[in-house]
Amino acid sequence: MLGYIIRRAMFSLVTIFLVSILSFAIIQLPPGDYVDSYIAQLQATGTPVSEAEAENLRARYGLDEPFVVQYGLWMRQVLRGNLGTSMQWQRPVREVIGDRLALTVVVSLAALVFTWMIALPIGIFSAVRQYSIADYIATTIGFMGLAVPNFLFALVIMYIGWSVFGLNVGGLFSAEYELQGWSFGKFVNLLTHLPVPAIVLGTAATAQGIRVLRNNLLDELRKPYVVTARAKGLSETRLILKYPVRVALNPLASTIGYMLPFIVSGSVIVSIVLSLPTVGPVLLTSLVSQDMFLAGAIVLLLGVMTIIGTFLSDMILLLIDPRIRMEE
Amino acid sequence: MADKEDLSRKPDEPRDPDIARPEATVGAGADYNADTEAARQIGTEGSEAEDRVAVATQFQLMWWRFRRHRLAMIGGIVVLCFYMVVVFADFLAYTSPQASEAERSLMPPQRVYLFDDGSFNPHVFGLDSRRNPQTFQREYFANPDDKIELEFFAEGFEYNLLGFIPTNRHLIGTRDREIGESVFLLGTDVQGRDMWSRLMYATRISLTIGLIAVVISIILGVVMGGLSGFYGGWVDMVVQRVMELLYSIPTIPLWMGLAAAVPDHWSILRIYFAITLIIALIGWTELARVVRGRLLALREEDFVMAANLAGASQFRIIFVHLIPLVLSHIIAAISLALPAMIVAETSLSFLGLGLRPPAVSWGVLLQGAQNIQAVAITPWLLLPAIPVIVVILAFSFLGDGLRDAADPYGM
Hints:
The complex is a heterodimer of chains A (328) and B (411).
Chain A lengths: L1 H27 L5 H11 L6 H11 L5 H13 L5 E2 L4 E2 H36 L4 H15 L2 H16 L9 H4 L5 H10 L1 H27 L2 H8 L4 H7 L1 H10 L2 H18 L5 H10 L3 H29 L1 H6 L1
Helix pairs in contact in A: 1-16, 5-6, 5-10, 5-14, 5-16, 6-10, 7-10, 7-14, 10-13, 10-14, 14-15, 14-16, 15-16
Chain B lengths: L28 H15 L4 H8 L2 H11 L1 H18 L1 H4 L20 E4 L2 E13 L6 E24 L3 E10 L20 H37 L1 H16 L2 H10 L7 H16 L1 H14 L3 H8 L4 H37 L11 H5 L5 H6 L7 H22 L5
Antiparallel strand pairs in B: 1-2, 2-3, 3-4
Helix pairs in contact in B: 3-15, 4-6, 4-15, 6-7, 6-9, 6-10, 6-12, 8-9, 9-12, 10-12, 12-15
């Protein structure tokens, strides 16, 4: 088991390393370098930049060096906790995205919780009452949830919220809490705003979860041990929840690893539509204005976050599925 | 899916609820195969239908299985209709997608009246505009005295049908007026461009970008999956790790990063191909997974060894003998990959990172509906969402049916 954990951790580290290269490639991709656009920006605001200053900046970021050396320099900075400076905001990247990153985690987790809360009961119900009307309804809605891109779903919810209920469903805080520091009131306010983004983000994963759980459970329900248990007079609820559901959950648990990147990915676009104060909108503006250090840092951090999340979900799977433990 | 329970199944066939549900094997692959194997032996006891099955070709079998999947059939027909729009976009549009006029900004959709005093005479009413003195917004009112009669196959702007037949016929036109200035079936956008005509051209771009991206993905997926599945060993290792990497990172930020690097000054066509390539580069993994999985199973078969002994090259074995066998699976995977690609393009363009105006795609059209104000005041700008959702649903049903049909245990 320890061997498995170590192997899994090593793989996560390798993935993080590859993600960091990809993120750096994104910083490097646009034509010209950071200093060019920085100077262009300063000149646009009327601040002249001398040739010497430009050379200084280039030397500081090692922009004359080859890709590998530049990557090394950037990595050294990042590992020391310095993500560079955002040109657009004129502040360290860490300050710009700190709170937003935390809120991204909160929104993604909320979506994950929503997914499980909905997928579990519906999946079980669909399988136990296979081909009932409720099963048809659940699977059809599930299919739609899987098919509709979540940013469109966000737009539609926004429209319905406005036209039917007269509400603006965007944002994570009410106006009065927006600029305040953290307090209990703000926390409660956040909780009341979480359901909409959680539903929008979680729907596709929920649909997927329902399908996987339903199919796995249907498989289990046909096995002889279920008949035996029933013949012995175990109550139906207990029988289903205690054995087949437990077995059927394992393959579902292993999909968390793939759900997480999916949800984080979706949160970027949904945040822009619903104007959530997560990293999504900042990523978009930073990409449009070619504020590449900010953009690179966000892609890197989102990637690392998901990989850590995936690693943790694998560890949870290890706890609940004895078969994985036995393999070692 | 809802239609898995098939009523048309012949009574002498085994009622196996596992039919057409390959995912069900996740938990218990071995039992499943053994079960269906046993069931099939019972089913083969001297029935004429079974004889027909025995001599049918792979694709006939697939077609029979596919036909029973009713939602998939409907999905297939809807997808076909959408591609007809792609081919005949200029015919269906009645004005140029770029013709703008500030005077016609944000007009609501016109209501079409099909009958006039009991006889068939489709017409709309002209819109008069007026500024609201309070909100300063332009408001439009239908003018009942200004009847605009519509006719079919009318003359309009010049274009080349199918790209080479010059004509000026369009599906609809007006009898005595400039259609671009009087008919707005789906309203207009901020710049006063007709939404209906823009939607037709957007469909063309959005659906072809998906096709091209899928073609690139297939090539990547088949080559990578093929190598990985056939050679195994370290090749498999490397390809597997790359696929896992692409699975385990959030793709949209990555797409956004890559798409933002596409220079602004490129021509529409170059941006179009760049975006296609970006989408395909990240989207090939699912196809590779399918091909690899099938090849891993097939390479142990006797005919592969026979080909090997006969001196066929590895390349020949993979691409001449094995790929045709997994073709049906590839087709199913494609129809599932296509909607993902269409969504990818729509999302990127919606964010302003994909195709840029003057190109028209669904995502570009939806840019107009990006915030709550637009959605609340001018809800018709949200209309392009409908074809996106419909085509994705249709593709999903179609893909689901094809995947079930391609499953050799399904019959």
